[in-house]
Hints:
This protein has six helices and two strands; from the N terminus they run αββααααα.
Amino acid sequence: MSSAKRKEEPAVANGGAKLSPWSKALRTDAAWEDKDEFLDVIYWFRQIIAVILGVIWGVVPLKGFVGIAIFCAINAGVLYLYFSSFQQVDEEEYGGTWELTKEGFMTSFALFLVVWVIFYTAIHFD
């Protein structure tokens, strides 16, 4: 019986149930005790944005540098607004604004390019 109580104790913090990272990600009043947890949320939000924009760019037949530039602006802009306005985290805790802005950017860029090329080729290839 005592081992069952020990298993329950880590799940309860400060009198309330421990929230998952995704539950915290969608709340403005979330407290991020673990820095890596917040960085993981930033990373995966970028991947989601990359897939969505890759599909849109492939369907719309957007091409070239304009598509890449718009993706970079939207990706960086949306995440900057998320962590500075919505979550209101102290950027200096995470190494500054630039560190949060570039967290997972290159992998999301690669994913965006793959999805964009696949959808563009599948829909618009003659």
